[in-house]
Amino acid sequence: MDLNDVKEWLYGCSHCGTCKEVLNLFAPSCPAGERFQLESYFPSGQIFIARAVSEGILSLADDDIRERIYACTGCLSCEQQCGVYHHEHIFEIVQALRTEAVTQGLLNPAYMVMVDSLRKDDNVFGKPKAERGEWANGYDMKDASQEKVNVLYHTGCMLSFDPELWEVPRSALSIIKAADVDVGIMGREEACCGGRLYEIGYLGEFTKYAEHCLETFNSLGVSKVVTSCADGYCTFKRLYPKVNIEMKFEVLHMVEYLDQLVKEHRIKFTREVPMKVTYHDPCHLGRHMSDAAVYEPPRDILKSIPGIELVEMERNRENSWCCGAGGGVSQANPDLALWTANERLKEAKATGATALVTSCPWCERNFKDAIKEYREEIEVYDIAEIARKALASVLQQSTLSQVSD
Fold it and tell me: For the chain, how many structural domains are there in total?
């Protein structure tokens, strides 16, 4: 999508300012605008920029202009609040500006590193492809690239390469295996979903990854692809349909699948987990999913765990404040990403919760980094880690049936 594709939307903004605050709460909704307090960082200002670039008044060769369009986290909170565009188009305009910048060869150095890493090793972190499955080393897991499985667990880049987050996929697969599901992983053969490429304007590269993943998943003959990554889930569900390849499998986020397993009585939480927690809604499970947003399954899971007390932050569900890591901001503007995360941590602490629970590794990573940067005192967990604590049958065994030497 380029500027010509969004041209009809460039003149609808009335600059009323509604996009700047959550309706009825009068709480900030736009991370970049709130951080820098300049109109050009708010959605209404970004639309002005797009209009001026389209008319030749401004140029994307201006570093200050590109800095602003890459400060958007793509959280879609502006679209949730806007009464003109009605939950669409604003981020598409920002993405069109980013695509135009890439087309003109005006490349962001931070993104060039990420794209080069993807081309070389199929991940955004510059890690060797051979290390992608190391999180599962020593565990008895089916290799879906070598043998037939019914359910494929897609780990994603962040959970594959960040050792501090390895307990997330391990916990998720412990739970799935406890339900006696025929599940496997791709390990080193897994590839990036390509979602970040789409959000930063590299549409051609995104299409290559989408085609590869769709063809691979279809060839495996799996009935379901389950992932703990909200970004990957949204990419599969919302972006892959843009590619002209039939999807012959169902896509579920781990919270949806876990909620199903609980309600089908295939797993039962029996151990008490005495914690007061608050839940953070990832943007890619919420607003990005529009009418198919996944708001209640994670809350239903937490409420079904003995000992858990769930308290809500003021901004929750469709009004959730972004973690700050989305839209490539954690790579290009880490200071903004961490500031945004810390704003959320302060909101979480205000509830009296001792732990913040989420369902996205990008959120979890950014929150953990902000805790270190700002010296906050609150724990952060993925929901699978909490659920695993409540499963007696899992705790009585070594995780994932660890294979002895």
Answer: 3
Sheet-wide strand order for 379-382: 308-311, 275-279, 355-358, 379-382
End-of-domain residue from the set 263, 295, 313: 263
Q: Are residues 46 and 188 in the same domain?
A: no
* Tens digits of residue pLDDT in 11-56: 988 889 999 999 888 899 999 999 999 999 999 999 999 999 999 9
Q: Whole-prediction pTM value?
A: 0.94
Contact 309, 334 (CB under 8 A): no
CB pairs under 8 A, 24+ apart, for 64-69? Answer: 66/101, 66/106, 66/108, 68/32, 68/40, 68/41, 69/94, 69/97, 69/98, 69/101
CATH number, position 321: 3.40.50
Q: CB atoms < 10 A from the CB of 191, how many?
A: 19
- Euclidean distance between CA atoms 115 and 111, whole angstroms: 6
**Nearest by Cα to 65 from 1, 108, 26:** 108
Same domain, 117 and 237: yes
Angle, helices 167-178/254-263, rounded to nearest 10 degrees: 30
